[in-house]
Amino acid sequence: MKEQLAQIKQQAMEALQQAQTPAQLEELRVRFLGKKGELTAVLKQMGKLSPEERPVMGQLANAVRAEIEEMLEKQKAAAHAAALEAKLASEALDVTIPGKSVVLGHAHPMNQVLQQIKDLFVGMGYQIVDGPEVELADYNFTKLNIEEGHPSRDRSDTFYFTDDDSVLLRTQTSPMQIRVMENAKPPICILAPGRVYRKDEADATHSPMFHQIEGLVIDEHITMGDLKGALVTLMKKLYGEEAVMRFRPHHFPFTEPSCEMDMQCHKCHGTGEVDGQVCSTCHGEGWIELLGAGMVHPKVLEGCGIDPEKYSGFAFGMGLERMAMRRTRINDLRLIFDNDVRFLNQF
Length: 347
Ligand code: DAH
Description:
By secondary structure, the protein is an alpha+beta fold. It is about 40% helix and about 20% strand. It contains twelve helices and eleven strands. It is rod-shaped and about 135 Å long. The structure holds 3,4-dihydroxyphenylalanine (DAH). 3,4-dihydroxyphenylalanine binds near residues 258 and 316.
């Protein structure tokens, strides 16, 4: 029996040494220590021993059991640690693999141009102001000296909200002139960019919604020379020193005198022709109209409580899309609103 016990111990130890997984260890526990295990089988023979031998063998058997149990625990812990180690190794992050880069967007070309124009005017001392797109006809027309029956008031041109035609989507940013002059004393020097709306079918150069940038400067001794200076400075900064401009007489009800400013066409350089064909960018004109401007009409000043004998001023309104088309060198305005990333990514 003594030999049996010694043999069980040796076998158990060897087997446990080699076991690697928790499952193998459990199998060995059953084999050696279980109810039907080898050690139990030996103990069952205790009855055959003499009363003197019994306690000695009992002690020995208990010692063997204790040793096997101890080894089992030790190996279990080792198997556990090894499993954890393997798991950690397989799940480890390789921090040296290059990451997936995040694609950053950028400002829309329209906003880029707008920001640039704002920066230039802020640099000249202008203040940026904002106003309502849903406007009163009073501000959009009447106070700007646009009389009843003027074609621009027509329902076929303007989006009205009310049957009496008193509330509308502003057709121009010029009502901001009135809003500012009614609330501030000269000197006034503001820039008012924003959306405007007209009942136009969309085509290469028209959209029912577009953007204007209104400018207004009121002080003593303001002249047309100041107007030209401000606008020429802007255009040369935006389009380069070589940009060629012209001022052309025009009529607007809210300015007197009034003018329009054109820029020489960047496609045909003023000739109106490209490769013997009529230039498609300026339609053969050689010039592209950029804005309307003029000296604020005395009636408009008076209506806002500003003395036209003491103060004078200039105003201008430019189309932002027109400015952006020139900057981005595109000839279809709809590209600006389509927001196709293949287009936008070019700027
Ligand atoms: N509001 C005019 C338009 O929509 C543009 C304009 C012309 C604005 C003359 C002005 C100006 O401030 O003085 O066509």
